[in-house]
Amino acid sequence: MLNAIKARYAAALGEIVSVRSAAISFKHEGKVYEVSSADAAINVEAMPNDLCCRMPNLVWYDPLVQLGQRKVGYTIKALYAGHVVADAWERAGENSAFYGSFSF
Question: Which residue stretches of the chain are H helix?
Fold first, then answer.
């Protein structure tokens, strides 16, 4: 799996410096997406009335990987607490997440 990720996403991800196994929880209810593990989590909500899609020229960045039906979402909370590859961080309350579909 690691070699496949490196082959497809090396340009977007850069050097992979650590790999660990962890259980991942994924939950999608209505317009809310939650993904979490022991050391990282993201909780994203769709913007009201698909607001992200009315002014697409205001999106000045791209997701790390190509997404089908890409939309910008509202980050309720995103965090990393692992301390293995970087200091812990947390962000919340901003229109900074992408969501959509992808296949590997």
Answer: 2-13
